[in-house]
Design a protein that fits this description.
There is one protein chain. By secondary structure, the protein is an alpha/beta fold. Among the domains are: 192 residues, Rossmann fold; 137 residues, GMP Synthetase, Chain A, domain 3 (2-Layer Sandwich), CATH 3.30.300. The protein contains 21 helices and 25 strands. The longest helix has 33 residues. The chain is globular, with a radius of gyration of 26 Å. The termini are far apart.
């Protein structure tokens, strides 16, 4: 494989130029298929438009080593802007549309951006409103058409005159400038592209995770391409496959999938993580792969159960029966095929011998369930679905088990923005349940105790990692870099986990999320929260209790499920709409209290000090960009601040 991302694109366009690279969701494209609403761009076409846009950037004076902002969601133009920037040796600084104006101004200024791509009028307005904080920023390139851009500039000028201090171009205009440059200098971009090296910085991804000030993670071409090179070791994706893209592309998880698609000559179809949009696109695009965060798989499971509850009592009973059969058979199948994690040494032959008879006994029922029930679920995924890749957070065991029961393959992965991101992922041919898969090729992971001493398989400790995908460092922050990345290249992930005897990894929690009770007991919130969130009544469970005698809980209920419960309890009639006042009803609260007691109990493996005392129901919903990160993980520091009064009341 070539040493840089643009050179990789050139090679794929040479060998697979006629293959589809992108399916573009744009109603104004005359080439859009009238059935699917998508237009297709081939790899040869993608290469050519990237070349023109890269030349356009050169004509604007952007040079090798410059940083270019990229504020947009996942769409075809994002990849063009990204690849054009990288083609001339510059690095992009991506961020999502929901980034607050002040945070965006901080990032663009700190990263020394003189130019930024921006998706639409809202993003232009946001940046223009804080120009006094970004003195180096002189140019915006928007994905709007020329007429919309002209209208926007006119409005901004009439409102405040602020647009006059920054040039606003369209991507089409940049492409046209590039076309003109290439007519006189055909090798203008090629000269820059050939000078590219594997260790060149490709991007600065600013991330605060769930705590702290944004940090600029410097990732190189080789950080990304190391993963692209080794994807065939783990999953079988190739030319003609289609990825349904639903995640924010500025985050490293979706971004690596863009490059995996290029490296495998597969196609990117742009969708949205909105239930009705995504489900419709699954039907029309019929993808083979989809990368997403656990919350999306949870939402799919919840939607299935919600639909089942509208069926007759007989159909509901059959569904529950076949899910139970499917789950039991999947566990036996894992045992039979050696796909159970070995945290202690154990004979795989003995496992297989004890599993074979019940496996055979349940197989006819599993097959019948697949025909009568689960085939319909698979059809909703388009009928060609090979596997989903879940990352950006821990996949709840209940969700994982449900899709195993349904015969739908989910490959859970693990990583950090600082590792580009993949450190481990389940292998398609040998997915080991209860783990995030084997350690990624040419990567080392060690589990250490509080003193930094290595721990054997089966022992929980801090996860340390080293490999070619580990970042170059934090931009302009050598001290912060040194605090997580030592001289030998080992990065402190901040996560807790354990290895199996087969070098597979299980994530058990976050070191910095650990709650320490007054009695000195350490509690990992994630397993408890995940177990509670298996209930349809709970959208989010957020454990509390640092330095307290016992644990407390904030719950964001699911409004639809609460309303159904209220109807069941006779509090309201079936025609009523949801009202947050229901959360104060004694009968509703009693049902939540019972749910907590039954879920966080000894029978489910929880210890006495992990039992939950007081709880509070908060209306929600939690919002991405506020209480939730882009990966839809809870920002505990934001929740702690926003709901400080409710948390304090738990322990009064």
């Amino acid at each position: 494989m070539k040493p840089t991302i643009p050179l990789t694109l050139q090679e794929i366009a040479r060998t697979h130029g006629d293959y589809p690279a992108q399916m573009l969701r744009r109603t104004d494209r005359p080439t859009a298929d009238q059935t699917t609403g998508f237009a297709t761009r081939t790899y040869a076409e993608l290469r050519d438009i990237v070349e023109r846009c890269a030349a356009g950037l050169l004509s604007l004076g952007i040079e090798r080593g410059d940083h270019v902002g990229l504020v947009a969601e996942n769409r075809g133009e994002w990849l063009v802007a990204d690849l054009a920037t990288l083609s001339i040796g510059a690095a992009d600084v991506p961020r999502g549309n929901d980034t607050p104006a002040n945070e965006l101004a901080y990032i663009l200024d700190y990263a020394d951006c003189s130019t930024a791509f921006v998706e639409d009028a809202a993003q232009v307005r946001k940046i223009v409103s804080t120009l006094e904080r970004t003195p180096k920023l002189t140019r915006l390139i928007t994905f709007l058409d020329t007429d919309a851009r002209d209208t926007l500039v006119g409005e901004l000028t009439a409102e405040s005159g602020a647009a006059g201090s920054v040039e606003i171009l369209t991507l089409d205009e940049v492409e046209e400038r590039g076309r003109e440059l290439l007519e006189s200098r055909p090798d203008a971009v090629a000269d820059f592209r050939e000078r590219g090296e594997a260790d060149d910085v490709a991007t600065l991804i600013f991330t605060s995770g769930t705590t702290g000030t944004p940090k600029g993670v410097m990732l190189t071409h080789d950080n990304f391409l190391h993963q692209v090179r080794h994807v065939p070791d783990l999953i079988e994706v190739g030319a003609g496959d289609i990825w349904l893209c639903v995640l924010p592309v500025w985050h490293s998880f979706e971004r690596i999938m863009q490059y995996v698609a290029i490296g495998s000559a597969s196609c990117l179809a742009y969708s949205k993580p909105v239930g009705h949009v995504m489900l419709a696109d699954l039907q029309t695009v019929r993808p083979t792969w989809m990368a997403s965060v656990p919350r999306i798989w949870e939402a799919v499971q919840t939607g299935i159960y919600r639909n089942v509850k509208t069926q007759s009592a007989v159909k509901q009973a059959l569904f529950r029966f076949f899910v139970a059969i499917g789950s039991a058979h999947a566990r036996l199948d894992n045992k039979l095929r050696g796909r159970l994690p070995r945290f202690a040494r154990r004979s795989r032959v003995a496992d297989a011998l004890t599993a074979i008879v019940p496996w055979l006994a349940l197989y006819p029922l599993r097959a019948l369930g697949g025909l009568l029930v689960f085939s319909k679920i698979r059809q909703k995924l388009g009928g060609r679905f090979v596997a989903g890749i879940s990352g950006g957070g821990a996949l709840p065991p209940g969700v994982d088990a449900f899709f195993q029961a349904a015969g739908i393959l989910l490959l859970e992965g693990y990583g950090l923005t600082e590792t580009g991101p993949v450190l481990a992922v389940r292998a398609q041919r040998h997915p080991v349940a209860g783990t995030v898969g084997p350690v990624f090729p040419e990567t080392q992971i060690t589990i250490v105790d509080d003193a930094g001493a290595p721990l054997p398989p089966g022992k929980q400790g801090l996860i340390m990692a080293r490999g070619p995908q580990v970042m170059k460092g934090y931009y302009k922050q050598p001290e912060l870099t040194a605090s997580v990345l030592n001289a030998d290249g080992w990065i402190n992930t901040g996560d807790l986990g354990m290895l199996t005897h087969d070098n597979e990894l299980r994530i058990t929690g976050r070191a910095k999320d650990t709650i320490v009770l007054r009695g000195g007991e350490n509690v990992e919130p994630l397993p408890i929260e995940q177990k509670l969130q298996e209930s349809e009544l709970i959208d989010h469970a957020i454990l509390q209790g640092q330095d307290q005698r016992n644990l407390g809980l904030l719950i964001v209920p699911n409004p639809d499920a609460v309303l159904r419960l209220a109807v069941e309890l006779g509090i309201v009639d079936g025609d009523s709409a949801y009202d947050v006042a229901l959360l104060a009803d004694d009968a509703i609260r009693a049902r939540f209290a019972a749910l907590i007691r039954e879920t966080v109990s000894a029978k489910n493996g929880f210890r006495a000090f992990e039992r939950i005392g007081p709880f509070a129901l908060i209306p929600g919903p939690l919002a991405i960009g506020d209480e939730l990160s882009q990966k839809q993980e809870v920002k505990r520091h934001v929740v702690a601040s926003k709901y400080a009064d409710q948390i304090a009341a738990l322990f009064e």
